[in-house]
Amino acid sequence: xxxxxxxxxxxxxxxFLRRHIGPDDAExxxxxxxxxxxxxxxxxxxxxxxxxLRKDLLNLPGPRTEAEALxxxxxxxxxxxxxxxxxxxxxxxxxxxxxxxRNVLENPGWYTAYTPYQPEIAQGRxxxxxxxxxxxxxxxxxxxxxxxxxxxxxxAAEAMALAKRQxxxxxxxxxxxxxxxxxxxxxxxxxxxxxxxxxxxxxVRKLGEYEVFGALFxxxxxxxxxxxLKPLIDAVHAQNGLACIAADLLSLVLLTPPGELGADVVFxxxxxxxVPMGYGGPHAAYFATRDAxxxxxxxxxxxxxxxxRGNRALRMALQTREQHIxxxxxxxxxxxxxxLLANIASFYAxxxxxxxxxxxxxxxxxxxxxxxxxxxGKGFKRQNEHFxxxxxxxxxxxxxxxxxxxxxARINLRLVDETTLGVSLDxxxxxxxxxxxxxxxxGDGQASDIxxxxxxxxxxxxxxxEALRRQSAFLTHPVFNSYHSETEMLRYIKSLENKxxxxxxxxxxxxxxxxxxxxxxxxxxxxWPEFGQLHPFAPLAQAEGYKVMIDELEAALREITGFDAICxxxxxxxxxxYAGLLAIRKFHESNGDEHRNVCLIPTSAHGxxxxxxxxxxxxxxxxxxxxxxxxDIADLKQKAEDNAxxxxxxxxxxxxxxxxxxxxxxxxxxIIHQHGGQVYMDGANLNAQVGLTRPADIGADxxxxxxxxxxxxxxxxxxxxxxxxxxxxxxxxxxxxHPVVPLDGPDPENGAVSAAPWGSASIxxxxxxxxxxxxxxxxRRATEVAILNANYLAKRLGQAYPVLYSGRNGRxxxxxxxxxxxxxxxxxxxxxxxxxxxxxFGFHAPTMSFPVPGTLMIEPTESESKxxxxxxxxxxxxxxxEISRVEQGEWTVEQSPPHNAPHTLADIxxxxxxxxxxxxxxxxxxxxxxxxxxxxxNRIDNVYGDRNLFCACPPIEAxxx
Length: 961
Ligand SMILES: *Cc1c(COP(=O)(O)O)cnc(C)c1O
Fold this sequence. Notes:
The protein contains 33 helices and 25 strands. It is an alpha/beta fold. The protein has a domain at 526-772: Type I PLP-dependent aspartate aminotransferase-like (Major domain) (Aspartate Aminotransferase, domain 2). A 7-stranded mixed beta sheet has the order 2-8-7-6-5-3-4, sandwiched between helices. The chain has a 7-stranded mixed beta sheet with strand order 16-22-21-20-19-17-18, sandwiched between helices. A 4-stranded antiparallel beta sheet has the order 11-12-15-14, with helices on one face. The longest helix has 39 residues, at 339-377. Pyridoxal-5'-phosphate is lined by residues 335-336, 512, 572-574, 606, 608, 653, 657, 682, 684, 706, 721, 723.
């Protein structure tokens, strides 16, 4: 045994950095040689503008090993106290079926996938989402549902916006029933103010006194009352307005669905379908409406189409209508949503089936009825006459005392005021819960006879009004009636997983999306009960662990970005944009500059930028880019001057989505400031800044951080995400606050932008762990290697495909765009053909046609090894060779492999009359066979799917056919 290695050296073997970074030192060296630069440092100084490149390391703790970081975080988490939550208010205890917990939530096959823009390799999650839509349709009684929104409160705001677009009424007034959840009211008000709608908050009995374009009711309402919606909906319709209903999904198992009562939009949270409360999220919201409003829907719709063999195949319907793609014409700015959580909710319904759900809902209701009866017997007056799972009680000045007793029994009640308490039961409640609650309320030490109470309530059938008991069947489709044993369920989940390509199969080089490693160590804490089981409105004293973790993450993000304050509320990058623009708006207003409403946006911007600007009622003025892809500074200057009096802000992405570090970025920020504007930096590309420069130092006033890009939260097939914003001190008072849990810092008058105070708090441990494992040096190295990998790809692919833009010294940033247009002109092979052909090699296509139509934007991230990059390059060069053969007339376009891609097993086992071999079709390189991914369908017909829009599970006959 040799003793040449030092102990310190031996201890390094557990360093996380080398696990996160794909290429090892030797590979990095070889790539640097290809680029003709000496060192990583040299590459960086050739690439990043000198005026913004920082020399110092960030001041951050770490790096820690995986064991150290998780050990520390476990200690932090254990400061959270898990009480039985009876708070209700839209968040309920639930039991995540273990088969779903382990095989979906904890499974990289599900959580590392991307939004299903390439449907041929995403049929699994598309089916799960279609099930989610069917579930939403069945339980609400509506005609059409979309795939998922961010949370119930933002879904309410989207419903209001839909009502405004679709209602015949010319009114500018929106009615909100004051018995809705407070967080919903707050988020809707914030949105209404941004849109310039007026809002009235009142008792539903006063509805007739107003003329409204829409109204929001909650069913059952925040106090648990179940009101007959029919007369209210009729009254809204009489005014030519639309009726929007927030409904509890589980209650709809037993209640007449709002669709049968005439509702126009029905939405709510799907949290209690198996998704832990997680101190506020992430959870999916569902959203259902009339068929007539399908083109006004926010978010994504999954539709049924056919592939080139005529087989059934799923895709995102009306994809060119996808919200952010329509830019300022978008219905909303939804991009990242909550796909993983929607999938979990749909699996929950598949697993339990209609009978299982009925059992759960009836049990919850029966226990609530027993509790109601017991409390009545003990002299407590119930304020809601009817109920599903929630009771609001008049406790005559004893609220404080009862809440204290409840805490001693580790139960949280909803404390409304000194005389009023709320109590909600859920799937996790039992007889014991009811016994405990009765003892807590009475405080007389007397045990209750649950059996006797049960006999009473069964006889009296109290709770749900006779006329509002659900009669209609639901979830009759076979998918909800076939997988109730664990074996069947396990195999159903696996069969869907097998159809999807995720990061556990190959690199997903999606430009602008930063599909980097989502390390297992980072994922482990999110399913710890200490993080999962907390209600977002639990007393702060019970959430100390969350406070420590969030404070530490905020401190790290402040250091990384240079901002003075962080607002953790937005649940996606796009929501961050909206929240940031609102802060800018309020800042201008506070200076008496209400008129400042012009938002400058370069043409290279992501579509969410103009969509968010529209939501903040800003006027979008586009700024052109020059031939090198940079913002045209002369044009920017001109437009800033022309609009100087009304300039609100600039929205700029840095490095730009053209994949270059613009040298003029400081000057750009100065021009905006000189004209009285603020700089909003879209932080989607922060992965190219961390450790090398900082948004606030460059000149940004506010910026969002897509924690699901740069900070390792997995994309979950299209969500969850987190889009906290960093702001400079002058904007800090103007960021979102929360009506239920007031936050330190922002003005208490500020409304909320999300339902929960810290957004999707339970996924923040992922980003916390990433920062802890990497440390300052590691974070900087990650950025450097991301740049190295991108430049290596650009250099090697550049021989075959023109790289559209590059910066100083011909370098790209952390991503690059290759131009397919000249090849298309010469050969007829399209960018889509290239994207689909990549599937035959087992790769996911890069981002297609964004930000420039006819191009592919490639972002390898620091996590991909040289070997994987070389395979990708190999695949791209092979495809280039195929394009050449078409150019040279050897193949017609129609006969060529790219045109016929992806190739399926059905292709090569059926008749074969192509001029290339089956081998070339499915094993186009020798290495493909060793890890073959088989697309489960052929190329999907987009036009057919949009012409024959069908967004529910196909009828049973379709299965038989
Ligand atoms: C991803 C992205 C967004 C939107 O972020 P979401 O989290 O998906 O809402 C905005 N701008 C750019 C440049 C992006 O890449």
